[in-house]
Specification:
- By secondary structure, this protein is of the alpha/beta class.
- The protein folds into two domains: about 5-135, 3-Layer(aba) Sandwich (Rossmann fold); about 160-425, TIM Barrel.
- The chain contains 13 helices and 18 strands.
- Strand 1, helix 1 and strand 2 (about 40-45) form a beta-alpha-beta unit.
- Helix 1 crosses helix 4 (about 120-130) and helix 5 (about 200-215) runs parallel beside helix 6 (about 230-240).
- The longest helix has 16 residues, at about 390-405.
- The chain is globular.
- It starts with 6 loop residues before the first strand and ends with a helix.
Amino acid sequence: MRKSLLTIELLHPPHPESIEDRLDAPLGLLYIAANLRKHGHEVRINDLSGIPQDEWKIGMADIYGTTMYAPTMAVSEQIAHMCKERNPAAKVVAGGAHPTAIPEEISSDFDIIGVGEGEEIMVDIARDYPDNKRVYRKPLEHDLDKYPNPAYDLIDPFSYKRTLGGEMALTILTSRGCPYRCSFCGLADHHKTVKKRSPEKVAEEIRFLKERYGIAKFIFQDDTFTINKKRLEEMLDLIRPLEIGFKAHGRSGNDSAEDYRRLRDAGCETIAWGIESGSQKMLDLMNKRTTVRKNEEVIQWAKDAGLISRAFFVLGFPGEDQRTIEETQRFIERTDPDQYFVSNFVPYPGTDVWNHPEKYGVTKIYTNFEEYYQVNGTGFGSRKIETKNLSSEEFEKMERGFRNWINQRQQRGKLQEYEKKLREREI
C-alpha cells in the first residue's frame, strides 16, 4: 500500500574536473524541493559538490532524485548505486539536462527518468509511488507564480563561492526559457516558451533573502533578463528601492542604450552576453541571429552606462579556423570588454550539432561524456568532435595560442576566485 507522504532526498553530483565545484547552489533542486513540500512531502537536499567521495552520506528515503549532466553521468550512476544500497526498495530518479536530451540512453541503475523541468514531474512520481512508470514528462505551468520560492533553508547558502563585486551573491530566476535557437544549446527544444514570474514575486524573494541571510548581491540567471521591455521596466521599478547589486544577461539586437541606463540606476553592476565570436561567419553558423556590429554596440552602451561588460565566447564551434579565431581576437581588441570568459564548444546531446552533425561538417562525435567540459580545472576545454576543415591537433594548437593571448589581457572589476586562479596558470 502506498504511503500518503514520502521522504524524498534530492542529490546534486560533484563535478570533479570542473574549475570550481561549489560555485552556485543547485537552484533547480531548491525549486523542486519547495514544490514537493507544498504537496506535503518531507524533503532533503544533499549537495555533494566539492565533497570527496569518501565523505558522501546518503540518507534514508523512499525516493531519491539525482541530477545528471553529461560529464557527471558516471558519478550520478555511482550515487544511484549508493542510494540503492541505503534503501533497496527505494525508487531512484535521474533528472537534468542529460537525461532530458537522451532519456533512452540512461542506464537501468535508475528506476525512473524525468524529462524536462522537475517541479511537476517529481510531484507526479511521488503520487504514483511505488507503481511508477519508466519515463515522466510534464511541463511547468505557464505562470511560474504558482510555485513556491526556492527552499534555501535546506542548504547552507554560505557554503557556495559565487561573488559579485567581491561580495557573496545568490542566484535568482525571474523567467525560464528562451525564444532563440542557438545551435550549441542542448535544451532548445525544451525551452521554446518563455515562462515568467511576476515582478512582485521576484521582489518578494529578493526581500526575503536579503532579510533572512543579509545578502544584498544577486545573479539573475535568466537566459535573457532584458527580453521583455515592459516587464523589465516593472521589475526595475520594484528592485530599485531594495538597494541591491546584481548581474544580468542581455542580448544584442534586443537591448538598447536606455535599457542599460535603467539597469544601472536600479543597481545592476554587470551585464553579460553570449557574444560567442567576433566572426560573422561563426555567428551565422551558430544561429545566433545577431551581428558583429550589434555585439559591438551593446558592449559600448554598457560602458557608457557605467556597467561592467562581461562577454562570453565559444571556441571551436564547427567551421572555426585560424581566420575566425583572429577575427575574434580583433573584436576583443576593438571592443575591449571589461571581463570575458572563453568556453570550448561541446556537442551536448540535444544540440543541433548532435542531432544533425552532417549539416555542420562534423565527421565524428566522441561520446566519452565524462570529458564533456567547456573548461576544466586545467584551463582548457575538451574537443569532442572531428570536422572536415580542422583536425583536433590543429584546434588544440589554436586553443592554446588563443587562451595564452587572452589571459595576458587586463580584466576590470572583481573576478571570481576561480577565474583569478585560471589566469595565473601557464597554459
